[in-house]
Amino acid sequence: MRINTRTSTGRAPSRRRRALSGAASIAAACTGLGAMVGVGAASTTTSANARAKSASSETVTVWTDATRLPGFKLFETTHPGVHLNIDTYSGDNNGASDLQTKIGLYNRVGNGWPDVVFSAEETDAAWTSSKQYHFAAPLNAGLVPSSTLNNFATGALATCTFNGKVYCLRNDIGQNVLWYNKTLLDKFGYKVPTTWSQYQQLGEQVAKQHPGYVIGTIGDAWSQDVYFWASECPSNHLISSTKVEINTSAPDCTRVANLLDPLIADSSLSKLSVESSDFAKQYGSADKVLMEVGPSWYGEYIFELGYKVPSGQMAAALPPTWPGDHYTGDVGGGIYMVSQHAKNPRLAAEVATWMATSTDYQKTAPTYPAYRPAAQVWLKAVNASGYFAVSPANVFARTANDVWPGWSSLLFSTDGVWADTVVPGLTSGKSLSSLLPAWGTALKNQAQTLNYSIVTS
Amino acid sequence: MALTLRAPSRAVTRRRHRSAAGYSFVGAYVLLLLAFGAAPTAYALWLAFTTSAGGGFAGFGNFLQTARDFRFIPAAEHLAFYLGFWLVSLVVLVVGLALVVHSRGPRASKALRLAYYVPGALAGAASVIVWLFVLDPAVSPVAFILHAFGWSTFDEVISPGHLPVLFAIMAFWTGAGGWILVMYGALNNIPEELMESARLDGASPWQVALRIKLPLIRKWVAYMTILAFATGTQLFVEPQLVSQASVGIISPSWSPNQLAYVYAFQLDNFNGASAIAVDLLILGLICAVLIISRTGLFEAS
Lengths: 457, 301
Known about the structure:
The complex is a heterodimer of chains A (about 450) and B (about 300). Chain A has about 450 residues and is of the alpha/beta class. Helix content of chain A is about 40%, strand content about 10%. Chain A has two domains: about 5-175 and about 330-385, D-Maltodextrin-Binding Protein, domain 2, CATH 3.40.190; about 175-330 and about 410-455, D-Maltodextrin-Binding Protein, domain 2 (3-Layer(aba) Sandwich). In chain A, α4 links the parallel β1 and β2. The model of chain A is unreliable at about 1-55 (pLDDT under 50). Mean pLDDT of chain B is about 85; it is low at about 1-5. Chains A and B meet through α1, α2, α5, α12 and α18 of A and α1, α5, α7, α12 and α13 of B.
């Protein structure tokens, strides 16, 4: 079972995990024709629509998770002329998918849509912008000025962009860095690896000299976003909004498997999830994590609050690189979307833009702001935190622009496919290399069901 | 005179009252049945035979589309394994345990009855949460059992091959208690003289259970099997919650009912979802017809 480090703090950073459906779905299960009776689940937010009708034109209906709620409240106090009808929902956090459920139902009845939506699932723009759902409005065609769009971290809007149109604004990014325990590393006399081959060598050294310690994990639902994303593996590379490149036997994918397989075999790379109670018990809270390539939010939410690593030990370095490359991956990052059906799209876009870019709000946000000017202010708080052995601010700022833009949002959860095809295979003792074909097949199967045309090179 | 006149009229009003109460009970039930049983079923049937675009007649198109889905056969296989484990264990253990309770003295059976009933009193989802803890070696109170099987992590416990059995155990634990009580009630209806005479004829307790009690509760077992089969084919909560707790190691379309959910809410294809729902309905009906015709469930004894 996974410990839920973030919800317990009440400041859950957004994260990508759509493999699973929300608790609302349970209600549907108890009935005879489970899937059909779930229709009733949507009633909770219809009141917002009724309110919107009776209020003035300066009313915007907003859906958000609890974490982003203070931001919208701040917008209301700083914009007295605008009234927000705020409804909190799961925010698609932790694998919930109720946004899709509800938009699908509203599309069936032809009304009820919110004007502005926050979602913690960074890939949600794929389906909200699709012809079938037709919900998110393109923002770069007059709603949001390009001067604003250009100020987002490089590549941050790639997951929002389909056929050249930007359908969402990123709230935050989870750029991967190399987290390491400086105290342990100094004690053992190891150096921080700067390339992936050094990383592999270190892992083999650790397995021999300090068995029981780990330099990372491969058992997370998002491990592919750490290792394969950074290697530019074309496992989900959109060419157009309906054409996708899926080739898990490409050299950029196999080199990752070949690099990691020895580390999986000698247990210097754990097969557990960083959020599992098993990992916490064996490594996390036992002070056995030497390093871990992971998103910028791991420092606070996994190491400090999850494993309670004492202050003054953790630090972040630039992630390892492949020869001639500088790319990294990304785990998590919420988005704001504006409805096609909004009565006042300009005002709705203003709300979304303010949330994503306002320094006043973003400087208090729990995770790294995707908007560069806001991030600069946010980083001052990181410098002042005093938890880290070395402030990770510079590393965060550099890697924020190094996320490979070729890892696309698809109409299905690629993390879900990784989690239910590759992770159980690894648990049963298979090598990562041997699982690449099955991973590719599972991705292609999903893509075919959703009418993507698939290319392999 | 007055008395004889009044007496029948009072009886008539009483009868009228009684029938009014009856109608109001049945009426409320019929209303709920229509709203939450018949209407959704009719809607599902209508959706299953129409196209998503425009609502024209689709024939068996939705059924073919969903049956050809790459997830359909695996989901059906999972369900078949699960049903196999669950139905067999349910019938054998429920009948067995009910016979045990019935053969004990009244005091022991009272305690046992409560013990059987308690897990069933927990709501379905809540009991699955309990199981998530039980099955996680890091926090389980019975971790030694899991370790004895060679499983040291949650991921190993819920590896794909174990799932049908695990879900069957969960479903048994949450659902069997109520059935044991029903069977116990059925056993209590057997006239004491019948068993007394069997004992006088020299039947052992074992023979009484097998030759006298079991045949007399046969219809109850058939009734339980029909309902258990229908709920079993709609397996949803267990895989859904375990999937969530494991961050997706279990496919979100593990069971056919989950696949229907994916169709409705992730593929926006209510027609396909309805087709799968109708598949499950037909499966349940076939099972019911077979069991009813084989056991003579509705024949007056």
